[in-house]
Design goal:
By secondary structure, the protein is α/β, with parallel strands linked by helices. The protein contains 4 helices and 8 strands, in the order ββαβαβββαβαβ.
Length: 118
Amino acid sequence: MSRTTPDEVIEFEPQEVKALLDAARILLIDVREPLEYASERIPGALLYPLSTFDPAQLPPDQPRQVVFHCAAGGRSLTAARQRIALGQPAAHMAGGITQWKADGLPVVRIDPRTGRAV
């Protein structure tokens, strides 16, 4: 169930993110680095690495809510806080892709030898 952190970041569990993504109600932003994204990613997630992140370059929260994710939740929380600092609402996925996979949710993996999805 979603909750709000003390600094007003909305926090979703992976199952909630999956349902919202399937319903096209969110824009999922992966703030991991390109190499991490290239090796495995959540289907439908867009890459905006935190190392070069500029929250002003992201679309507004309409009509889909922006939700950030990373490996374990730390970087996505940082990105969400940066977005809040601009006066925009922010959400992130608790536990990151690590929790997503632990919950049995789908990922796209790339075989480094062939470059093909597995």
